[in-house]
């Protein structure tokens, strides 16, 4: 089937790759390349933060299984001595970390999925002495996705699988179907437009921006001899999440070359620029919880809008505008990377059923 996917964020690229792998002829149309999407702002840890999925409850689990597989492939390639595993292997690693809990009872709704996939002992309740004194929570090992290189890997994988790309704004489904964007008329359309996903369907009042802001640190510093930073600042590996107060949440995701530190979750704030006062507050909280950050240089600041929705929209849509099937896949909130492979598999199943 000839399919057009609208969107080149993590959702669109994962759907395109899955559909191409199932033998479809896929074109992605998007007005922002992957590096310029919300997806590129994500840390990204597999974790179902700020998302509700009503009609497809297994998306978290399906994605977790796929990310664990990708992390296994990367580890195997590394142990075989591959110099740069990101060239043809997805940059995903299983990383240990600590999720601080401040609520009573804590929200452990995500734990059954993790233990189902990774085993009963995968999540351990702990009380420990942190930099600011006693802290309680859970320790676990989850996939950490190095988003900038991961999105590049997804793009490359799509191209290798034969996916075509058109960098255009889709103004209407009708124009798309008539071939206005230099695409052959599609037989089905998948809308992976993130925050703007509902615009082509006459608007969707249920989509709301939830603003996040991050600071990016170098992971290790002054590593002139390239040995992993021992001659400079420390190299962090474990992640840390303290998000029971979303207005003042703190997370530290050490990737291979950099560390993403957030954040906030400001509902209905559509400002995409980082703000100095917020950055200062994030820095103060993060350095208090993970003092090693004080020894590392800041590489930059960023902000992004999580495409939040009352429930993730993943369904075939009734529209009179075009007479081909249209599938919506948007509204992933703070978990678009987390749910990407589950979304892609579900979309591919829906296409098979058309
Ligand atoms: C600070 C921050 C931290 C986050 N951390 C995590 C995390 O750790 N783990 C996690 O899972 N998630 C995280 N998220 C959430 C995650 O980033 C989003 O859920 C995810 O990126 C949504 O992906 P998407 O592909 O659906 O949308 P986007 O990445 O926004 O992509 C949308 C695409 O659609 C295109 N588009 C839209 N409308 C049109 C149109 N009319 N014509 C052409 N193109 C169009 C755009 O150009 C773009 O290519 C975080 C988000 C933020 C802001």
From TrEMBL:
FAD binds at residues 170, 333-338. D-dopa binds at residues 251, 306, 334. Residues 2-350 form the FAD dependent oxidoreductase domain. Transmembrane segments: none annotated. Its EC number is 1.4.3.3. Keywords: FAD, Flavoprotein, Oxidoreductase. It comes from the Bacteria. This is D-amino-acid oxidase. It is an enzyme of class 1 (oxidoreductase). GO terms for cellular component: cytoplasm. Pfam families: DAO. Its cofactor is FAD. It comes from Corynebacterium variabile. Belongs to the DAMOX/DASOX family. GO terms for molecular function: D-amino-acid oxidase activity; FAD binding. PANTHER family: D-AMINO ACID OXIDASE (PTHR11530), D-ASPARTATE OXIDASE (PTHR11530:SF11). One of its GO terms (biological process) is D-amino acid catabolic process. It catalyses: a D-alpha-amino acid + O2 + H2O = a 2-oxocarboxylate + H2O2 + NH4(+). InterPro entries: DAO, FAD-dep_OxRdtase. Coiled coil: none annotated.
């Amino acid at each position: 089937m000839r399919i057009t996917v609208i969107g080149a964020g993590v959702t669109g690229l994962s759907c395109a790759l899955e559909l191409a792998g199932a033998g479809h002829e896929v074109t992605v149309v998007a007005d922002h390349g992957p590096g310029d999407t919300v997806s590129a702002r994500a840390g990204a840890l597999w974790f179902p933060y700020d998302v509700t999925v009503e009609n497809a409850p297994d998306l978290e689990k399906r994605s977790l299984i796929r990310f664990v597989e990708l992390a296994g492939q990367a580890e195997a390639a590394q142990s075989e001595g591959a110099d740069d595993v990101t060239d043809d292997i997805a940059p995903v690693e299983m990383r240990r970390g600590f999720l601080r809990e401040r609520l009573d009872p804590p929200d452990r709704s995500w734990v059954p999925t993790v233990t189902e996939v990774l085993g009963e002992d995968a999540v351990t309740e702990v009380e420990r002495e942190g930099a600011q004194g006693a802290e309680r929570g859970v320790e676990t090992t989850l996939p950490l996705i190095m988003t900038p290189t991961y999105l590049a890997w997804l793009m490359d994988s799509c191209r290798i699988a034969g996916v075509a790309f058109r960098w255009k704004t889709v103004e209407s489904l009708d124009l798309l179907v008539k071939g206005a964007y230099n695409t052959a008329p599609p037989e089905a359309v998948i809308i992976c437009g993130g925050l703007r996903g509902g615009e082509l369907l006459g608007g969707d009042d249920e989509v709301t921006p939830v603003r996040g802001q991050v600071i990016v640190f170098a992971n290790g510093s002054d590593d002139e001899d390239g040995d992993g930073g021992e001659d400079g600042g420390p190299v962090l590996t474990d992640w840390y999440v303290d998000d029971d107060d979303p207005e003042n949440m703190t997370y530290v995701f050490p990737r291979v070359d950099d560390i993403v530190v957030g954040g906030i979750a400001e509902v209905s704030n559509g400002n995409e620029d980082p703000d100095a006062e917020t950055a200062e507050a994030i820095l103060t909280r993060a350095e208090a919880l993970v003092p090693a950050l004080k020894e590392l240089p800041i590489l930059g600041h960023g902000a992004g809008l999580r495409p939040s929705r009352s429930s993730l929209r993943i369904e075939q849509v009734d529209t009179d505008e075009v007479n081909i099937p249209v599938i919506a896949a948007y509204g992933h909130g703070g978990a678009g990377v987390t749910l990407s492979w589950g979304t892609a598999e579900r979309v591919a199943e829906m296409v098979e059923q058309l």
